[in-house]
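Homework-ish question, so no full write-ups if that breaks the rules, but can someone show me the predicted structure for this set?
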Amino acid sequence: MNKIILLIEDNPYDEELTLMALDKNNILNEVVVARDGEEALDFLFGSGPGSAADRKLLPTIILLDLKLPKVSGLDVLRKIRAESQTQSLPVVILTSSQEDKDLLESYSLGCNSYVRKPVDFAMFVEAARQLGLYWLLLNECPPDPN
Amino acid sequence: MKIQFPTKDTKASEVSQDREDYEQFFTLSMDPLCVAGSDGYLKRVNPAFTQTLGYSSSELLSRPFLDFVHPEDVARTLEEMKGLSAGRPSLHFENRYRCKDGSWKWLAWNTEPFNEHGILYAVARDVTEKKNAEQAILQLNAELLAQTSTLAELNQELESFSYSVSHDLRAPLRAISGFAKALEEHLGTSLDPIGAGYLLRVRDAAERMGLLIDDLLKLSRLTRSEMNLKPVNLSEMAEKMMSTCRQLDPAKDIQFTVEPDIIVQADPALLEILMNNLIGNAWKFTSKCRSALIEFGRNVQQDGTIRYFVKDNGVGFDERYRHLLFGAFQRLHSQRDFPGTGIGLATVRRIVRRHDGEVFATSVIHHGATFEFTLGTPNPCPL
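A: Not a homework solution, just the prediction itself:
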């Protein structure tokens, strides 16, 4: 199984809960976690050990939080859409905010989906199940440019 | 008819008559008039001049007139004098003169250039009041601008505050709810019913706080949203909401009455929220009635204003606590009897206020409540 998930999330509790929610749904794909926008960009566009270029492997799906230290989620999305090797990667915004402004901006920058993290954990698990089912199984991704 | 030919004598008498005329005008003028020399001294001033500034004529003539000019205006005045020396008349030149009592007066001047004898004639007008009014307007404008920018700043702050509430307050709640659930699963069968009950309450409370945060955000969005005024058919709106209510509980014995064709000029989205809250409340608080009655209509007051009302025969409220009714997160009923976050009537009041209206509540406890509102000239500006 070489479909990897890139989770871009700065809150350690949210990271743990997301991993737990994926695990509960038997989504056993490898999850690469970036703790801020800069780390995410390093993974996607850098050439250091463990980076996508180093592993010759791009994530199948990117779960992106909006409020991140250093480089914001929207800026990460902008960069992903600007570079040819990542421009068609599916990006799901996974955030707490449901401000209209964030929704509008995310969609206009080309996110594929926008999910608000529910407070209730059971609902969170359900959201993770549906996301995994759709993006990892049902959805056909564009062919790898490499 | 006797024809007079000009003679040397009559010429002389005419000239003296002219002088007499000018003297009269000079003395009578309500505006300050003066004659000045190229040496920088006043040579003659009229009574209006001395009255305006409060000095005697000899006081004014004894010093260079620049001594009386406001220090900040001296440079401009000297510049103007240069133009006069070069033969250019000066029109509507304004500067400040010191009065004997120490105050300053604004004078507007019309001056002819120095003549061949080094003499100039000037007419002034006291424009102090006009200048002060102008200054006051300028100052008010500056204050208004400052206040507008403060308001814009506050609005901006409110926006980022809401954003931070929306994002940052929910994250810890998710952790509380999620880890309580994880703990429950981790303990499995070793968790006794009492422990399980405690964990359930932790999660319930987290979820409720999530709802409160969402409602708080909705309320703040109401104030920030832009108004879009259109004719709104409140009767249709009420009918639709009531039929939705009926579908929720078809077995309930409830009678709806809606006065037809009530059309108002308002923001449709905001009015929908308002009506939803009032009718939703009427529905909620009649849930324990045997035969419930909900009515929507309007009354014309004695002064001609129209009050729209939603009336029910539910549990009502204690009028002693009416002042709490429209506050955010204020509740007059227990969560157990009637669930809710206490944001509905606060929302109603905000919407009515944005339409420059008023909202009223009356009730007889256990016999129902009536909520009335007016809609004035809507206020399109947030805040």
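Now go work out the reasoning yourself. Hint: Chain A has a mean pLDDT of 89.
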